Each structure stands twice: as structure tokens, then as C-alpha cells.
Known about the structure:
Layout lengths: L3 H16 L5 H8 L3 H13 L3 E2 L7 E2 L1 H23 L8 H8 L5 H10 L25 E2 L8 E7 L4 H9 L7 E7 L6 E5 L5 E3 L1 H6 E3 L1
Amino acid sequence: MPTTAKEDYLKALYFLDRENSRISMTDLSNKLAVSKPTANNMIKNLEEHGWVIYRKYQPVELTEAGRKMAALIIRKHRLTEMFLHEVMGFGWEEVHEIAEQIEHIHSEKLFTRMDEMLNYPASDPHGSPIPDKQGNIPEQQYQTLVDVPVGGKVRLCALGASSANLLHYLNRNQIQLGTSIEILKIEPFDHSLLISCDDKTPLMISRKVGESLLVE
């Protein structure tokens, strides 16, 4: 079983790979806030397990085994978030830090039971897809709110980013998954959006917030 540190590296590599298939040591060290020599040493260790392909001065590549291992860690994380939210009543802004700790537990029975109790959810509290037991992650065909034209009516399905600050902002404005959103106006100056949520009082949001809201 991989250590906590190895699992953190695999997760980081997985998300970097989805953003850009050419993963540099600089990208990896920045994402994990470690030095490049530290990241380099860990990558060599991961290569010994067959989880990455590493060549000096070349991008790091995840192998299929490494990608599956990372996806299964993400599965544990997202199942935990859903369990904390649906069963234990934690807010969607509270679950990430707790799940970061629980995801490193090596007990298949625990996460299988979570999955059963939740009736096999397809996504977590932020709308991110939960990988299956084989590490497969379904693709989501959503668009960002900023891509919706004036007059468009959509439903919030997921978040492209789920920082605590964003989640608190959405809470304050009573925006959650399933919220119906209509684009009333796009400000020419800064592309901020005037929206109506569930036919309530119009609200102006920044383009940055709009880019984080995934809708259909």
C-alpha cells in the first residue's frame, strides 16, 4: 500500500495530468509546495512501483497503474465527502479537510459500506464525479456559466473549483447544486454577470465566480 505522501503525489499528478499531459517537476513541486529535489526523489520512488515514467529533463508521465491508483484515492475522498455531507450533516464547505485525512485509510470495507449507505452516488457534494471501483471516472459534459448567453436559463450541476472562500460566498448568496440560474446581463467592462437564481432578486457576480460554476 502506498504511504500518505505517495498518495498525495499520485493525486497531484492525476490532476496535473488532466490539466496538461506534460507534467514538469516545477508544476509538481509548486502544486505540493515542496522543493524540486524533494519532488524529484519521490518521483523516483513512484517509478520503482511502476506508477510513473520518469526521464531526466522530460515531463513526468503517469502509467495506467498510477492513474488507477490515483483515481481510487480520489474515489475514497469523494465518497467520504458525500458521506459527511449526506449522512452526518456537514456543509459542503466543511467536508474537504476531513476527507483529506480519511482518504488515506486502507480499508475497502469502510468505503464499500459508505457507498452502499449512500445508494451508490455518482458525484460528491460539489458535483465532481466519483470514480468507480475500477478507477474509471465518467466525463461530465457541462459548460461554465460565463459561456451562457444573455437570456439563457441553466441549472448549476457542479463546481469547477471548490475553495472554502467560494463555497462560503455561494452559501451567503443561497446558491447550491440544482439552483436554476438565468443570465440577465453581461457587463461589457469586466464581463461580470447579472443573474437571477431561482427567480429571486438579481445578483451581480464576478467573471471569476462564473468560471467556477458548471451548468447545463
